[in-house]
Amino acid sequence: MKITKFLHPTTPIHTVSKRGFLSNLFGCGGCDQDPPPEVALTKDAKIVTRGMCLPVVGIGTLQMKPSEVKSALCNAITMGYRHIDTAFVYGNEQEIGIALRHMLDNTMITRDQLFITSKLPPYAMNPDVVKQYVEQSLSNLGLKYFDLYLLHYPVGLKVSESGLCPDDHTNHLAIWRAMENEVIEGKIKSLGLSNFNSRQITNILECARVLPANLQIEMHLYCQQKELRQFCRQHCIAITAYAPLGSPSLDHYLESKKLTSNGVPRPLDNPSVQKIAEWHKKCPSQILLRYLIQLGGISIIPKSSNPDHICQNIDLFDFCLEPCEMKELSNMDLCNTGRMYSCNIWVGTNNHHEYPF
């Protein structure tokens, strides 16, 4: 079976087999097993599939205050980050654009060295407004194209008298076709999904002209998404893990928005993680991040505005977790009960037919 690999619209269409995908992904010749821990990873490592070259380590911008953005992103890019994850709903695109322009104008960094992701917001899940939101985000960020553009959440929202509410007429395929048109126009290089489940992804795969190259999902020690990881592996879809540290600032965010917590423990406080960190002379955060990227086919986007943490979060390539350590961490998975982001965040969507969790 061959999977179509879409590049820029002016580039001829290529195909890549699953074996070829795994070889690109892990550098281990392609196999049906998880890659061995000896597989070399470097700060410049990329996940390659369907014309997309996704840097393994990126920086997230959710909950990043506008006043923090320029300093955080300039520090990150200076330290070697090339993958920046953004979204319209985060409310800080203009500040991110200012930081990008500063680095592009005042350093040797060029646009083609950066990988910028954004997302279609849930309240724009209408094919008639996709173009408008893509162009607005590009304008906010001062960009001509996105390297990757995602559907942010499978439940569309609409405006009602009481505010936003779920839209029963959410049509993923119609929205995807509108996004494909933006690829054809050169405004997007690769398409993907966020917070979608395997059934929803399958529906896209069966009808898409531009196949999804990426799935962004919550993934950390207590929510390891093993079945969905295997599904994506089978379909040559790279994964981006959001909240890879378990979102240390989530409780503060929930309190500020008067939302409830799911009561999941902090991965950073896990005794096994702390023991492994002490053995390797690393921080617990570095163990959690190294574990995910060492699984293979996973990029990570930890968010921080602290310069020390930004540095630590990319300093992952001078050590390797042993097989016994990988197994120990794998056994910490709480499956679905380990989710920190569900209907407590996506309030009012759990009765919708497209609720993904």
Strand and helix layout:
Elements: E1 2-5, E2 14-17, H1 18-26, E3 46-49, E4 52-55, E5 58-60, H2 66-78, E6 83-85, H3 93-106, E7 115-120, H4 130-141, E8 146-151, E9 157-160, E10 163-166, H5 172-184, E11 188-194, H6 198-207, E12 214-218, H7 226-234, E13 238-242, H8 250-256, H9 271-280, H10 284-295, E14 298-300, H11 307-314, H12 323-330
Parallel strand pairs: 5-6, 6-7, 7-8, 8-11, 11-12, 12-13, 13-14
Antiparallel strand pairs: 1-2, 3-4, 9-10
Helix pairs in contact: 2-3, 3-4, 9-10
Question: What can you see in these coordinates?
Answer:
The longest helix has 14 residues, at 93-106. The two termini are 30 Å apart. The chain has an eight-stranded parallel β-sheet. The chain has helices at 18-26, 66-78, 93-106, 130-141, 172-184, 198-207, 226-234, 250-256, 271-280, 284-295, 307-314, 323-330; strands spanning 2-5, 14-17, 46-49, 52-55, 58-60, 83-85, 115-120, 146-151, 157-160, 163-166, 188-194, 214-218, 238-242, 298-300. It has 357 residues and is of the alpha/beta class. It is built from twelve helices and 14 strands. Strand 6 (83-85), helix 3 and strand 7 (115-120) form a beta-alpha-beta unit.
